[in-house]
Amino acid sequence: MQSDLVVEDGAITGTLKFIDSGPIASVWEPGNFMALQFADIDEDATSVLVGLEPSVSSGLVELIDDPDKNGVFKVTDKDAQKFVVIQSCNGVQRKQEFDLSGLTLLDE
């Protein structure tokens, strides 16, 4: 699905393969998908929303109740989309945005 994926300094870089079959492509249609696991969640967080802005259709999704803290996201425009994490903790909301323009999206 991906190789050399790095999340660092407000950017996500690496290569996303084109997925045209399997469960993900069946639900979201073929495209380039990025899988992330979130290990840096504050244990006092009451909400963690993650996703792409703008998104294909799902918008931001709540991660707090996901036991694996995994997510898969369809990247359709690496130059216009940003990956977003909004974490709420003790009444304070913190938003992080990650640039995707350094991704390589393969056609096949």
Describe this structure in words.
- The protein has one helix at about 25-30; strands at about 1-10, 10-15, 20, 30-35, 45-55, 60, 70-75, 80-90, 90-100, 105.
- It starts with a strand and ends with a strand.
- The mean pLDDT is about 90.
- The protein has one domain (about 1-105): Immunoglobulin-like (Sandwich).
- A four-stranded antiparallel β-sheet has the order 6-5-8-9, with no helix packed on it. A three-stranded mixed β-sheet has the order 1-2-10, with no helix packed on it.
- By secondary structure, it is mainly β.
- It is built from one helix and ten strands, in the order E-E-E-H-E-E-E-E-E-E-E.
- The chain is about 5% helix and about 55% strand.
List the helices and strands and how they pair.
Elements: E1 2-8, E2 11-16, E3 18-19, H1 23-28, E4 31-37, E5 45-53, E6 61-62, E7 70-75, E8 82-89, E9 92-99, E10 103-105
Pick out its properties.
108 residues; Immunoglobulin-like; three-stranded mixed sheet; 6% helix; globular
Distance between the termini: 11 Å
What is the gyration radius calculated from CA atoms?
Answer: 14 Å
Number of helices: 1
Q: Share of helix among residues?
A: under 10%
In short:
By secondary structure, the chain is mainly beta. Helix content is 6%, strand content 54%.
